[in-house]
Amino acid sequence: MMRLIKLACLVLAAAWGLGLAGCTSLPEKILHTKYRETYDAVYEAPDTSDTTARFDGNSTFDDYRRYAFAHSPALRAAFDRWKAALERVPQARSLDDPILAFEYFIEQRQTRYQASLIQLFPAFGKLTLRDKRAVAEADAAMRAFDAERLTLFDRVVKAFYEYHYLFRATEVTDENFQLLADLEKVVTTRYTTGLAPFADLIKVQVEKDRIANELATLRDERGSKSAMLAALLNFPARAALPWPKVAPYGRALINEAVLDGMIKDLNPELKAADSMIDAAAYREKLAHRNFLPDFMLGASWMVMPGMDGKGDESDVGIMAGITVPVWWGKYRAEIREAGAMRRAAVNNRDDRYNMLKAELSMAIFKFRDAERRIGLFKTSLIPKAVQALGVAKQEFSAGKTDFMTLIDAQRTLLEFSLMAERAAVDREIALGEIGRNIGKYDIGVWLDTKTSGEKQ
Description:
Layout: H1 2-18, H2 26-43, H3 61-71, H4 73-92, E1 99-104, E2 113-121, H5 126-192, H6 198-233, H7 256-266, H8 268-288, E3 295-304, E4 313-322, H9 328-397, H10 403-438
Antiparallel strand pairs: 1-2, 2-3, 3-4
Helix pairs in contact: 2-4, 2-5, 3-5, 4-5, 5-6, 5-8, 5-10, 7-9, 8-9, 9-10
């Protein structure tokens, strides 16, 4: 029995050594370190759940972004998938469990019973390739988490600034409503004194009611916009979120050639695709090694009836063997499958790169178009509309123009003001899209060095 135990220990020791059990590679250690750092930075922070976290009028976009990163279920799901992929690495590099068998002989002519311990060893290099493939898949899962974080960032940008636009549109429309209310008082006075026809009073009341309806629509829309933002944050808001605080917009100079070159260096989707290509390549190499036989080592302890009525005798044996890879058609099919999957991974990466370049180009166009509109409204159209409204008021008071000219001037100023607010929001949303495409949500880092941090 002691000899069997010693041989079993030798078998298990060989399994431990040849199976690389407990051997963690440097890439795996790096992935675990990054996982721990991400967990500490994002999820180990003090709890800011619905009992302690409050957004108020001083809450900025960074406050919303940080809260979303720490509480988003979609982002946490990607983080858990990263953890799951890490846990598959030690599984991939480990041997199968040894087999402990017991055999009892019914007739017991030659042997009463036998116990054996058997361990199977993959052909040389198979475990290493499995380990590398699992590490590459874990790296892809880490990149997928980064990509999900960028996607969440982009969605929060859109929801945050759309909510801010609703706030500004409500303010501008309300200001216009108050101006019309004041104008209605003036027209009413002029009508009662016979200086203005009844038609002017009707026109101002119609315009006031129209603006009041638009204002009511904007106020009703607040609940849905707030709900969308709260959903992205996973924030249990029982009422509409307060209007956010938006800092003055900083200027940015966008160099399309530079940003296009940053996609390959920074975008996590492309890095995840590269890791999946590596994993597919390791799988293809592993398929080629299936033609090689696997090895088996084992030890057995047999108990046999003694001769001439003596007591039972025992003996210990060792065994070795190999698998016989005879199904070559199956192995060739595995190689072809692995090659096709590798080529598919390459094509997926190339397709995604092309789409990211196209999306970046569109986002840059949106940014430049918004910048152009902001300049047009701020420096030209709105000042002229304000001037036109002032002239219309003076001429209407002097009886030199009709009331519809005054209403049209008021309406034009409102439209230009709203369009200017829309352009400013579109600019920030476009910057968010640019950041998502190049793979960097802290976009202030890559703004032009001469103008980054400046406020206008």
